[in-house]
Specification:
Layout: H1 3-16, E1 23-24, E2 30-31, E3 39-40, H2 49-54, E4 59-62, E5 73-76, H3 99-113, H4 119-134, H5 141-162, H6 166-201
Parallel strand pairs: 1-4
Antiparallel strand pairs: 2-3, 4-5
Helix pairs in contact: 3-4, 5-6
């Protein structure tokens, strides 16, 4: 950012007289994850006095660490957990461990029982096998994501308190990789639900 841009921004801030609100669990918002560590306060909300008067119960809370170097800050008046909504079959299941083998084993079993079994019977049998298999699949992405984000937050706090350690950095890397996979699962499930809802309810 150029000096001119900084001056314009500072003048804008001085003119509107923004108000900040306390950040709950006031911790550092950014870490460079290097041997020579840097922890910095970034990313904050500033409000006009009129906005504060209109929404007096605002709060800002730093969320648990995610795959970004920055901690997300949540601005809210009220948080509501709508819970998990079940769905018959999610596309991400096709990439889960043992899914393919479950289908193959169910077809082999039916063919061994009756070599002349019809295709529709094979499909129905595979459907039953998939339903049983799905009971062991953890579909609560939000709980998984929250646990991983909390773990990242704990690991980062360890770095802040105890300094650089390769094992901690490796643990952070592995956790962020697993967290990214959970994000993708949740995204695909939400996308699939929205398509079905659109087909059912249209615009």
């Amino acid at each position: 950012m150029s000096t001119t841009s900084l001056i314009i921004f500072n003048n804008f801030v001085n003119e509107i007289g923004p108000v900040g609100i306390p950040l709950q669990d006031d911790l550092y918002m950014w870490c460079n994850y290097r041997e020579h560590q840097s922890f910095v306060h970034f990313d904050r909300f500033l409000f006009s006095p009129e906005f504060i008067l209109a929404f007096p119960s605002l709060s800002q809370t730093m969320l648990d660490k995610s795959i970004s170097d920055h901690n997300a800050v949540l601005l809210c008046e009220d948080m509501k957990n709508l819970g998990f909504k079940p769905f018959k079959c999610f596309n991400y299941w096709f990439e889960e461990a043992n899914f393919d083998q479950t289908v193959v084993d169910s077809i082999k079993f039916l063919k061994q029982a009756n070599s002349r079994v019809r295709t529709d019977c094979l499909l129905r049998g595979a459907k039953v096998a998939i339903q049983k298999w799905s009971h062991g699949v953890n579909k609560n992405f939000r709980a998984n994501i929250i646990n991983m984000e909390q773990r990242l937050t704990t690991l980062e706090a360890d770095l802040q308190e105890n300094g650089y350690h390769p094992n901690v950095l490796n643990d952070i890397k592995c956790t962020r990789t697993a967290l990214w996979k959970e994000y993708r699962k949740e995204e695909r499930a939400c996308c699939q639900k929205s398509r079905v809802k659109w087909i059912s309810n249209s615009d």
